[in-house]
Design brief:
Layout lengths: L1 H6 L1 H40 L1
Amino acid sequence: MEQFLSQNAIYIVMIIVLIVWAGIFGYMFSLDKRIKQVEKEMIGEKNEK
């Protein structure tokens, strides 16, 4: 196992970085979706007045 980790360390680092970036993009996508929903609610409230 240690030999595998020492020989393929760069691939393991790349996989971890890829997972972190995927998490950041997923969070940003969900945040954007929530902001759009709040914007729609605010526009709806302005039109009702």
